[in-house]
Amino acid sequence: MLKNRFLFLITILCLGIFQGSLFFAEEISSDAAERFGKEVRKHWSTEIPLDESAMKQTGIRRLESKHLILYTDLAASKQVDELPKLFDQLIPLLCNYFELNPQNYETFKVEGFLINDFEKFKSGGAVRQVPNLRNGYALRCRIWVRNQDSEYYRRHLLLHEGVHAFMGYAFGFWGPPWYREGIAELLGTHRLENENLTHGYFPKSRNELSGWGRIDLVRDDFMKHHDKTINDVFELESEDYNENTAYGWSWAFAVFCENHPRYKAAFRQTAWKLNGTPADIAKRFLELLIEKIRSEQPEWNEQEIIEHLNNDWTDFITNLDYDYDFERTRIDYKPNTQPLLTSETQFQIQADKGWQHSGVRLERGKTYCFTASGRFQLAEKPKIWYSEPNGITLRYYRGIPIGTLLATLIPDREERFSAKEGTLGIGFSAPQKIGLGKVLTAEVSGELFFRINDFPAELSDNTGNITVKITAP
Ligand SMILES: [Zn+2]
Fold it and tell me: What is the pTM assigned to this prediction?
């Protein structure tokens, strides 16, 4: 699945450039997005009227807050009856996220249906628009949600559909499946503490968000070698979302962008212009991303930016886990990587970081001698654990003792299509064990990266360094 990932994204991009500078000339701003949304709303059809008394007769209750009228056949309870108030908290958070003036959304109101017994809702005309409701659905300012056993997941679906309704109202469009579901999942994944809503929440453990399971879905797919490239995510179709796995991948891409300073703004700003074909939106996202990165790092060309994006994504999905440490796993790429020419070169590898760019290239067919030394801290509790570069066999991560020094090569562009992704020592998903030392012949020419093997949620309690010496031929 990782094969040709680079080619796809570059093709998307070249098509965009080929079509001229239209996209850059277009105004992409929250103001323009709102103006567009207003125009679209003018052409909305009138909603099918509801027969409230018929619904009442079948035992459907009506709960109302500032931004939501919720019809439900669920019995009165604190968890259910407070949902409209929770929904009210979502709207200002969304205004803030999309950089919109909340005053423009004072009167935004959604009619929601939280359904336990679907049959009951037929009498009042409430489900005429959704005869095949699976879990949730949104249409203009109406949302439908099937009741869930898990309180968390019931709220999650309500907020997820609420994001759709809000975006449809504000911008007129939701965008292609990867974007509309990714952003609804991102902003619907939440935490409730003392009745205060935090959205865009990243769970710390499996038990925290009951019924959600997005991380497990992506990890299971990855373990079955069904991992998705960014282009695969872009190409997800509406039918793919009959399975929750597609929601998992869309969430993963959204949360990956949201937590990376190079990609965050482009992901958010894509919401400001969602009209066009799915390919248009993917192209626009990449153009926004390149524009932003080049304004900060003009030494990077477009191909390098796309390569880094792909490599960062591979690293992320390889190691995705609860409480993932986005900051410490972020890869800093050094500019102007040079071949390793001197007879002996030395590097310092930090124990509390993910992949670290050495800034040198190795050359295909040449043999290199690695030696590593140093003692570093790997854990603080229940007691301090020290390790050396050959790791500690008491605990394993991805089948390798934690603390083991790892290396990998990211193949040069011209080698990319001949290099087998996933071959040991090539790419972030297939690192090579170095330990205290090793003699290796480079299978491809490429840039050299190091890291210490550890769980992605457990880097913060590491301290210290490893010194690696490489003797070149
Ligand atoms: Zn959705």
Answer: 0.93
